[in-house]
Amino acid sequence: MMFDPSGATDDGTTYSPMINNGMGTLALPKEYYMLHNGFYFQFDKDVPNSASIVAARKQQFDKNGWPLCDDSVLATVFFNLGYAIDIRDVRRGDLIGIDWVTGNGHAAFVCDMHTDENNAVDCLQFLSANGHAATGPGVSVSAPNDAAAFIDHAGEQFTKKFQLFADNDLYLTDAWWYCLPGVTRNVVKLETFRSPNPPASHIVDKANNGNYAMGKLRAVRFWGFAPPDAPHGDVLTDETCELATQLCQWQMTAPYSIAG
Fold first, then answer.
1. 189 with 74, same domain?
2. Rounded CA gap, 155 and 37, in Å?
3. Which of 39, 47, 61, 127 is 20 to 30 Å from 111 by CA-CA measure?
4. How many domains does the chain have?
5. What is the C-alpha to C-alpha distance for residues 244 and 226, in angstroms, rounded to an integer?
6. How confident is the model at residue 161 (pLDDT cuts 50, 70, 90)?
7. Is residue 246 included in any domain, yes or no?
8. Half-sphere exposure of residue 177, counting CA atoms within 13 Å on the CB side?
9. Residues 6+ apart with CB under 8 A from 102
10. Cis bond upstream, residue 228 (ω within 30)
């Protein structure tokens, strides 16, 4: 939907995403979706000649010097839909690729984030498709008990209690806050959140939450949105930052979580 040049947002449109600078003539290929979901280089026993197909794909990427970008963030950068940023610079709306401590992965959007005294993100909330194929709250902010504070659950029926994804103090207190890899909940200063502060038990880190914590994290910002004013690390190059500034049409949405 994001890359369909029609700009439609309804569920009756057949969307045709395009990738050539909005000119509307080059379709986003199916390979993007396969890479985005991590399937492109995986053997599939249900696909005839899967092993040879995967080998040919790897050979093509190796021949061209392309990275094996079978990941939501890496594929988005590869198809030039956005640019990589340091995870400490994420803001609302950025796309993130999560590797859980278990080794499983998840693609999500940053819903809100909190920063430390160096303006580096220490924890965040994400919006994504949550739950399982047959059950779960679907597209929601990750929260305990199938987002019970936001969504009523009766049998296989899920009903939102109010307008979702709009700023609401309940997201501060009743959703999960995931520490960035390497950050522990004891260094996240709860008093620097706006009131009401989230409970410490909702700050997810490896020490306290084990397999539910983030092991690795990658981030991409879509072209058209402003780059960080003072980027951390060296993920965002000067050349990319300059181009992102030239192409900027929108500023990033300010965090709701931070006091003041």
1. no
2. 29
3. 39
4. 3
5. 6
6. very high
7. no
8. 29
9. 211, 215
10. no
The token duo for 187 is: 């260094």
Q: Both tokens of residue 114?
A: 């909190």
Report the alpha-carbon distance of residue 228 to residue 168 in Å, rounded. Answer: 25
Note down the domain range covering 172: 83-222
Q: What is the pTM for the complete model shown?
A: 0.92
The answer, yes or no, to whether residue 26 has pLDDT greater than 90, is no
Does 21 have pLDDT greater than 60?
A: no
**Do 127 and 178 fall into the same domain?**
yes
Q: Which two tokens stand for residue 69?
A: 């970008």
Which of 149, 143, 146 is closest to 202 using CA atoms?
A: 143
Residue with tokens 């080059």: 26
| Alpha carbon separation from 45 to 36, 55, 187, 220, 224 (Å, rounded) | 20, 14, 46, 32, 41
Both structure tokens of 121: 């993100």
Assess whether 209 and 131 both reside in one domain: yes
> Would you say residue 23 has pLDDT above 70?
no
Tokens of 141: 């902010």
Task: Say which amino acid occupies 43.
Answer: F
Q: Print the SS3 string covering the chain.
A: CCCCCCCCCCCCCCCCCECCCCCCCCECCHHHHHHHCCCCCCCCCCCCCHHHHHHHHHHHHHHHCCCCCCCHHHHHHHCCCEEEECHHHCCECCEEEEEECCCCEEEEEEEEEEECCCCCEEEEEEEEEECCCCCCCEEEECCHHHHCCCEEEECCEEEECCCCCCCCHHHHHHCCEEECCCCCHHHCCHHHECCCCCCHHHEECHHHHHHHCEEEEEEEEECCECCCCCCCCCCCCHHHHHHHHHCCCECCECCCCECC
Length of the chain: 260
Indicate whether 137 belongs to any domain: yes
Structure token pair of residue 142: 């990750």
